[in-house]
Each structure stands twice: as structure tokens, then as C-alpha cells.
Amino acid sequence: MQDIRGLDFSGQTVMVTGASRGIGYGVAHSFAHQGATVHILSQGEDVHDAAATLAGETGQSVTGWTCDITDSARVDAIFSQIPALDVFVANAGLEAVTPIDDRSADAEATFRRIIDINVVGTYLSTRAAVPLMRDGGRIIITASIWGSTAVPELGAYVASKHANIGFMRTLAHELGPRGIRVNAVCPGWVMTGPALNTLKEIARDRGISAKEVAREISNDQSLPGVQSATDVALSYLYLASPLAVNITGQKLNADRGAVQG
Known about the structure:
Blueprint: E1 13-17, H1 22-33, E2 37-42, H2 46-58, E3 62-66, H3 72-79, E4 85-90, H4 105-129, E5 133-142, H5 155-175, E6 181-187, H6 193-206, H7 210-219, H8 229-240, E7 251-254
Helix pairs in contact: 1-2, 1-8, 3-4, 4-5, 6-7
């Protein structure tokens, strides 16, 4: 990744949840590459391998923590071991299809789990981060373009991302007196494992190929193509940097023009 002038995070400490892969990994890599000390958190044990890889690639200190962010005791225990934070990225989330006509026990369990991770887990992890944040700190929540619009059969995910945006706006008011800026990045389609799984499920339900769905997605954007996790990470660097010093309570669509507004 090439150096980005004006986005130096040397001497700063950053925590990214849901960072063993996908967008979170790309965001953690970008902050570490720009000089930050980074903590990454994920439910799976692979977070430790991810931390080692990031440290090797960037030469920065990267620590991995295993945690289910819906477990408040575990969340608090981990954050109590971190002295201070300059940037907290609440990125951990779950995406899955939850059609309203599926009355199975599995469907209900999936719906509840999505809300528990994406809404309650975001609350619990952010609550734990706030006391560690220096005045002038920055919180960035990963929402989605579907936090402003909607698509069929993703009711739980869409609802959770609307909730993330409302939560972000509330925190911006609460934490503003401390100079803490709170914003959300709303990615469009990003080539990650969960997004690809969703794309395949949509294709199966519609009886078309995943390649055809991907083509439709690209055609609906102002800029064709699907972004990578490294691409979308630039939005997080911007919001955490002095370049965005007057920006708080806002959602930034990083979607290649899929949603305007």
C-alpha cells in the first residue's frame, strides 16, 4: 500500500473490531501502515494469525484479541487491558439473508443473532471504548448503504445498519463536548467473504448466476466495478485524520455511487 500524505497515525493507538478478515482487516492494515499501534478483535482464533501477519507486513505493533462482542463481561475484560485509544472502529458485524416468509427456528435464530452482534455488540464494544478515549478521539462505525435504503430478504441486516446510523448520530451529540468525533462509513458492495456469500444466496433465490448478480450491481453504480477492502479503508483513514476535523455525526457512503444521498 502506498504512503498517503497527511494521514500519519504514528504514536496513535487504534482498535478495530471484526478485523480478522474483510473490511476490518483492510482498515487495520491501513492504520498500521500509516504508523499506528493497532489492536484487532474478532470472535475466531484466527485473529491471532491475522495480527501476526499485519505486524509482519507493516512493521507495527498489532495485538489480536478473541472476543464475542455480545458478551459484555468479555468485552470489558479485554478493553480493561488497553491503556488508551485514539481511534475506535466498531466494524464487527454479521450479514445473512433473512426472508420474512421463512418461519423456521433457524431463520429466527439468525435474525436475533444479526441484531445481537450488529446492534447490541456495537453498543457494548463502543461503551467499553469510550472511557479509554483521549479527548479529541475518533469513533467510526461500519454501517452500510443499506442503512439508508433497503433490499429484499435482508431485513435483519438492513434494520441493524439503520440502527447503527442512529446510534452514531446520538453519540456525536453525547461525546462532542470532549471533542470526540463520531461518524459512520457506509460501504457498498466490497469483495469480502460475507458479501460474496450474500451475493450467492441472492443469485440462488433468483435462479441466476452470481456473476450476473455482480454485473447488475456494477451497472447500478456510477463507477463500475466492485471495490476492495483496501479501497474502502481509505474512508476510515480520512474520517480519523485532521482532514475531517469538522466532521461528526455524518455517514460517508463509500459505494462507487450506488446510493446518492
